[in-house]
Design brief:
Chains A, B: Its cofactor is Mg(2+). Chains A, B: It catalyses: isopentenyl diphosphate + (2E)-geranyl diphosphate = (2E,6E)-farnesyl diphosphate + diphosphate. Chains A, B: It is an enzyme of class 2 (transferase). 2 copies of one chain form a homodimer. By secondary structure, chain A is mostly helical. Chain A has one domain: Farnesyl Diphosphate Synthase (Orthogonal Bundle), CATH 1.10.600. The first copy, chain A, is 73% helix and 1% strand. The first copy, chain A, has a two-stranded antiparallel ribbon. In chain A, a hairpin with a 2-residue loop joins strand 1 and strand 2. The termini of chain A are close together. The interface between A and B is large, with 58 and 58 residues.
Chain lengths: 299, 299
């Protein structure tokens, strides 16, 4: 990764980490065991791609970061809860994540389920802090909370996880695999970008361009994950290669080949960049850099 | 139960059932398996005590039921998700609930966890529908969504479930047991009453009286559950008696005796009735009837 982008991402990531720490420190009346389990996964060293995107979008619209930060943190909490639940023995049954034991391996299944539940619940409380307390703002925020519920729920991320589980026993087409990704990871990524835009007062045109940007990089990100599962360096990705194949998981390389998969990532990223560069009033530099990074990344 | 109260509750319950069916029918893009699992527990024939209370409070304040109904349904969804997760093998490991196999027994653990997650997520989306779309209303609703997040999360219901699990291996005092119940079941019941009041434009005095009413009947309800576990009729309660003792669960009868437990239920219910009867502008009749029913109930 370019030095400048690395610094940019690092700076944004720190902002999110600090905000998340403040939020968790405020939780006073929480059983110590539960708080520990929540913090364990929330501060496990993730890339913070989603909340960083929310901040980057606000910046691209020349808006302040303060008002969007709680929503960015809320999305990261939703992402974290989904990882905890996905790792459970009855789901993907993963023992490690990012090189550390998974939540249920450390705290037990019951506590892992409850830590996930608590993070999801907290996320919606956190979203309510994005209002200036004034009328129009409040109405906008209420609509956004509804959108978040759709993106994270049965019609979005949870629905995608269900389809993913069902796909393990049924062969899927490229269209179906695209659909699974659109829901399982795309929906929340799209929310990250749209929340940043909506809370920063984006015009409809800007919101439209940013939504397409999000959908393109969301899918590119997922295909690249599939690619890295084959060609990635375990030292860098933190997970063994070839896992998808061993688990008979549907992947883009398996369906359309490795070369075509890489090409598709490239096309999606180019398309994403065109969207935000062409829209008026968007300072697209960092959004483009992030899109490029998604292709070049090794982890 | 008195015939009139039975009819009243039945009428309110039907209203909630219809509203919940409408909400679930709107969920178009949901995998069929997931929707089935959500519906299975959502329409398992529960008492609907929480949402009925929300409606009853609105009525007691001479307010329309329409604006509070989505919130009432949202609380029932949160209650339902908590039951699905509580029944899981890693938690209470229950095979039946209300005389039917538990969710994970029918749909498997993964789907049960996800159905719970989806219901919790949907609940927050549903809450957003309680706004007239006008400024002051929207601000009030945002505060209420935050309150719901606290009531259902790590500082409320989820925290209570954690404390309950920890209490299985550590002896608890009456104060600690009261605290567990206050969080595990009391917080959501309090929310049901407060949401009905806040959305119906209650004065601060009315809100105060209703909150105390909720706290009193919440604890009474839980102690009565403990009592019924000992003296209840399995045919009526739908669960075998003596389960708490067999599981070494901390209960009020175990800590303060059966007679004292019954007496305490009576006192709490009387106190609840005094609160709402004394407050001005509250038509307390049905709230009192419901409080009495909590003592007299056999299931």
């Amino acid at each position: 990764m370019k030095e400048r982008l690395a610094q940019y991402l690092d700076h944004k990531r720190k902002r999110i980490d600090e905000a998340l720490r403040r939020v968790m420190a405020e939780e006073k009346d929480v059983p110590a065991e539960l708080k520990e389990a929540m913090n364990y996964s929330l501060f496990a060293g993730g890339k913070r791609l989603r909340p960083v995107l929310t901040l980057t979008v606000a910046e691209a619209l020349s808006a302040p970061l303060e008002p969007v930060t709680p929503f960015a943190c809320a999305i990261e909490m939703i992402h974290t809860y989904s990882l905890i639940h996905d790792d459970l023995p009855s789901m993907d049954d993963d023992d490690t994540r990012r090189g550390r034991p998974t939540n249920h391996k450390v705290f037990g299944e019951a506590m892992a389920i409850l830590a996930g539940d608590a993070l999801l619940t907290k996320a919606f409380g956190l979203m309510t802090r994005c209002s200036s307390g004034e009328g129009a703002d409040a109405e906008k925020l209420i609509k956004l909370i509804d959108e978040a519920s759709h993106a994270a729920g049965a019609e979005g991320m949870v629905g995608g996880q269900v389809k993913d589980i069902l796909a393990e026993t049924n062969p899927v087409s490229v269209q179906e695999l695209t659909d699974i990704h659109r829901l399982k990871t795309g929906a929340l990524l799209r929310l990250s970008v749209r929340a940043g835009a909506i809370l920063s007062g984006a015009t409809l045109d800007q919101l439209d361009a940013l939504t397409r940007y999000a959908d393109n990089i969301g899918l590119a990100f997922q295909i690249q994950d599939d690619v890295l599962d084959i060609v990635g360096d375990q030292e860098k990705t933190g997970k063994p290669t070839g896992r998808d194949e061993a688990r008979h998981k549907a992947t883009f390389p398996a369906l359309i080949g490795l070369t075509e998969s890489k090409k598709r990532v490239q096309t999606l990223v180019e398309e994403a960049k065109i969207q935000v560069t062409a829209a008026s009033g968007i300072r697209a530099e960092w959004l483009c850099e992030i899109a490029d990074y998604l292709v070049d990344r090794e982890a």
